[in-house]
Amino acid sequence: MSKVSRVLFPVPRLTIVLLFIMAMGTSGCSIFKSFTPEGRGEKELFRSRDQYVRIVMQDVAKGVKVPPNEHPVILDSDQIRSALASMEAMLDGREKSVPVFTKAQLDTLAPFLSRGLAAAGPNEDVVFGLIDDFKAVHGLAKEQKYTAGRVFYRDGKLNIIFGNIQGEYRAVADRRLNPLAPGSRSVAAKQNWVFIDQPDQAYYSGPEGRRSDWITLDLAAMEAKAAAAEKEAKAAAAASGATEGRFYQPKKSVEERLTTLNELKAKKLITEEEYQKKRAAILSDL
């Protein structure tokens, strides 16, 4: 080895610090990414700024084996929309319950959920975060709020684990630290809402106990009841129309009735006595 090659050149401390900062900068994306709802293997279905609907891997519940979902599953978009539209919750500070989803959120979520559940595998969920405008205090202004959740189909029911319902949305917040995070199997959300009991909706109850942020929707029962109600309404309408056609006849005027009576007499279809009696009865209605 030459004498020159054995010479050690000292490296200034400032250079070492700068190199360390650069190295941290290149790995920073992977560090911050752990704070976001995004992950490896996700499939984005919808994105508009901070709003999203995507397919992701199932989250893992510590100490609990996560059963596979019944995916892919074909669910009609209108069927999903009707089920979601029936959900109501009581929020802190409100005097009455409110729909969980707004019309605009339903317009976005229902079709993408239908598409996502049809494309997801048994070990995948569909997650969402949606924003909309709401009336502020006293209705003098508007403020944006978000609703986020995790959706999957299992045991013949649509499961939704909510991360938030109409939570405060700050457009300028760093999403790496303040994501519109969906619900989790392992950790229950900190709630400021209580669901209103509705037919064919129930809180999930499993090995880890009852979850008030996790709702199951029996879509088949909802659809059957809706079909039965529609059939009953059609039958009632048909019966009403038939009754009106059979028994209801608009009452003719006195002049029309006298004209008809005179025609019957002229054709000698009634006697003089019958004519006089009927004529007196008609004139009594005047």
Provide a quick synopsis of the model.
The protein has 286 residues and is an alpha+beta fold. Helices cover 35% and strands 26% of the residues.
Q: Strand order within the widest sheet?
A: 1-2-5-6-7-10-9
Largest sheet: 7 strands, antiparallel
> Mean of the pLDDT scores?
82
SSE class: alpha+beta
Q: What is the number of beta strands?
A: 10
Strand content: 25-35%
* Topology pattern, helix = H, strand = E: HEEHEEHEEEEEEHHH
Number of domains: 2
Multimeric state = single chain
The number of helical segments is 6
Q: What is the rounded Rg?
A: 35 Å
| Fraction in helix | 25-40%
Low-confidence stretches: 1-11, 13-38
The general outline is elongated
List the helices and strands and how they pair.
Layout: H1 13-33, E1 43-48, E2 51-57, H2 77-85, E3 88-91, E4 98-99, H3 103-119, E5 124-135, E6 142-154, E7 157-168, E8 193-195, E9 201-206, E10 209-217, H4 219-247, H5 254-266, H6 272-283
Antiparallel strand pairs: 1-2, 2-5, 3-4, 3-8, 5-6, 6-7, 7-10, 9-10
Helix pairs in contact: 2-3, 5-6
What does this protein structure show overall?
By secondary structure, this protein is an alpha+beta fold. It has 2 domains: 35-227, no CATH class; 246-286, no CATH class. The chain has 6 helices and 10 strands. The strands form 2 sheets. It has a 7-stranded antiparallel sheet with strand order 1-2-5-6-7-10-9. Strands 4-3-8 form a 3-stranded antiparallel sheet, with no helix packed on it. α2 (77-85) crosses α3 and α5 (254-266) runs antiparallel to α6. It is elongated and about 100 Å long.
